[in-house]
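Re: the multi-chain job from yesterday

Posting the exact lines I submitted so nobody has to dig through the queue logs.
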Amino acid sequence: MFTNYLKVAYRNLIRHKGFSFLNIAGLALGLTACLLIGLFVFDELQYDKFLPNGDRVYRVYTQGTTSESPESMASVPPMFATTMKQEFPEVEQSMRILMYSAISLLEVGDKKLYIENGLIADSTFFDIFPLPFKYGSAAQALDAPASVVLAEDVAKRFFGDENPVGKELKMNKQTLLVKGVIQNNQSKFHLKVNYVIPLSAAEIPAERMSSWGWQQFYTYVRVKPDTDIKQTQAKLQDYITQKVQPLMPKDDPIGFVPYLQPLQDIYLHSANFKFDTGPRGNITYVKALSIIAVFILLIACFNFVNLATAKSVQRAKEVGIRKTIGASQQQLMLQFLIETVLLTFISVVISVVLASLLLPALNDFTGKDMSFNLLTNPVVFLLLVVLTLVVGLIAGFYPALVLSGFKPVKVLKSTVVSEGMFGRVQWLRHGLIVIQFSLTIFLLISATVVFLQVNYLHTKDLGFNREQIMFFPMRGDNMNRSYETFKNELAQGPGISSVSIGYGFPGDAVAGDQIIVPKDGEQKLHSTTHLMVDYDYIKTLGLELVNGRNFSKELTTDKSQAYIINETAVKEFGLGTPQQAIGKTLIWQRLGPSQPDSVKKGQVIGVVKDFHYKSLYDKVEPAVLHIHPDDYWKVAVKMKGENISQSVAHVKDVWGKFSPDYPIEYKFLDENFDQMYKAEDKLKSLLWIFTGVAIFVGCLGLFGLATYAAERRKKEIGIRKVLGADVSTIVGLLSKEFVKLVVVAAVIAFPIAWLVMRKWLEDFAYRIDIPLWVFVAAGVAAALVAFLTISYQAIKAATTNPIKNLRTE
Amino acid sequence: MIQIENLEKVYRTEEVETKALNKVSLVVNDGEFVAIMGPSGCGKSTLLNIIGLLDEPDGGSIKFAGTEIAHYNERKRADLRKRNLGFVFQSFNLIEELTVLENVELPLIYLGVGAAERKQKVEKVLEKMQIMHRRNHFPQQLSGGQQQRVAVARAVINAPRLILADEPTGNLDSSNGNEVMELLTELNEAGTTIIMVTHSEHDARYAHRVIRLLDGEVVMENVHKQFTV
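And the result, structure tokens for all chains:
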């Protein structure tokens, strides 16, 4: 019996080539998209799963309590690790990593390379994260201060293939002993590790290490098995309010609540954390892609159901005969399900081939290293079998039910089987088309909104000019000591319009601290961004002064007693208008109230228009600009853009004069900014690609349906033509039905798309308003695509000689 | 074999109610060859479909070999059909995706007969119907007469007790039609009961008895030939 089913299935496949092609192509494309998305999502979910006992490791983070929308901070004060290890019996081990994003110069012999992503960590680092070692061992690797553990490819760059354990290496001119090499393939680790040096090497004063306010450490704890982590978290929060808060000075209370984040959540659930480090995914985008995959698969399955029920007219006779002969409904259902599963199987095979071919491109695009090998991975194989069966059964069940339910008398007696016999099928088909188009229109709107927002992120006026600004950190004692001469020499180069040295450039790290605003006899504390600038900062970035004046070298007091603030600071500090703000006093206690020498008391001399020094995810915060050479570190060189390469060559020359031992490593400021929106850029591209796939798959189905609609109504068309209808009337007649469905779909999709996209946009402090035309355009585009797809069949039907159609009856 | 009493069938559309069968009663004996005649719309096909369990009556009783079957469920109907009934249609109703051999074999597959036995049976029937040489052709490749011979072969493959023929010669020329009628007669002589719906007086003469229907009622019975059990 089985062979008979397969035989009929195969012959049907061959006989109705067009139908089979539509079905298989649609399903194969949909499945390919799903497979690729599935691989991506699976890969994203693998982070930190490889670490032994990783399920017992948690990261401590805090949420601010002062502002309305509390921000999560990835870095916490050093005392958390100490306290939790000592006072919480369920905590087995704790570990801190110093938040420090500098790039170090590593040297072995003549080889000098800047290496990013070095970690400065407690010696328990490899206890918490038991990364596999290639050379040496984790035990005692970080015990001595002058130690370093290298990542395998970093070790290779300096030592080739030999074992470097026991050899020396210079880091920023200090000698360290290589204690071990960790294996590569840590691609699923939430931290990027090129080397690890012990925290003891940083020589941080003990006083600082006992701080509850210095949020400078990524802190991890491992708890004992079967620990109720909710309880531990509650205990920790109580500890802060009951034991720590009383110790704090009145004017500087603890402004946060601590939380424990499971290790395996860090990668995907920290997208909006402040001061985080390492590669991060975004659960929103993972979810969005998963939903899109389901959408595409649904659209492909619906095609299947629609085409199969439309074609059922042709199969009706066969059903009648088989039933007459004695086939039961179950046997017929089985037959049709086998046919669907066979079609699905073919689609799956094609999609596996397609996905394998496209995977390198996806890897390239996502920077991943995914593979799926059917032979080596039984899970993937099993999943594909399950997928075939599930899709085959879902898509095949309803058509099988309808087909096997035909009454033989009806289908055998009438020479023409009319659609009217299956009224509910018509309804279902229309329902499915509406859902398909709703999904398509939803995707179209989402893709357009994401496109507009991403475009806005890249092109919004940021309040400063980010074009042609070369940007790099200073290196070496000589350069740092004589930064003024360095700056002057840079400025004299060809095509260089100005140079600024400071700390706190847009797109780069900025410092944050409190500032005191004396008001009505009271001293009010405000959290503020501190931009440590020089006299040319405003000119170099092209900031706009709305009131007051710029810093001036001629006025010696500007260095020690002057502040320029942004408009938000004027508002937040309650200084009235920008004009009224001029002359107001601000106080910065750099090392706290106990060190009066470090206090900088000065007046506001100018107000700059708000500018975006962070990404557009963040609201512009109050910012204070002041001259503070102690923190000078980064250099911004503004070029005129006439001959950039000449200007860059000049900068390199000057660099060589001041710091010949260090190679220069530079970027352009706009690159920094564009980097911030990489995730959104990718989302944008992926959305367009998959929306395209969804539309195409949907169109394949619509094309098939239009074919059958034209077929079904050919007698009607013939009669209408004999009575004098012209081609456009006929095309209109056939298209009207489908276009009506698109309109219904649009009505359903619009509000959902609006709600979802508004939610997505809420993550951005600066965002577009969703314009009305997006909806109109998506609706019109969907209707147009539907119309074009149908019109081919409609025109064909309308231009056929009517006599031919009438005679075939 | 078949006992029908007061059989009723009503077709309803939104506005019109048509009585296709109005209290029809008749008996068909084992081994009998009965022709049902009447003008178009008289209810003869409806009667045949109800006897063949392809349709359900709205009232009355129908017994097959003494068992009431009017309200059999779908599963029982399918079972009775595949074991006891064979169908021959005017439009042949062969499955276009299957070859001659596969079409004839199909009832045996549904009966769960093993492959070897199937092959043997099918070949025997095809030989008998003189269609063996075309066993691997598809229905579209055959003439009308050949197609109907295949349909008859398929109807008899499971050795049914009753063959229901719905205008079996309606789509055939007279020589092919006579051939099919001869085939049916042979089957009847071998013991199979046959009920045939026809328009053709010529074909009806092959039957032992003719039942004439008009507007859903039996109006006359003629006996052509002597029939003895």
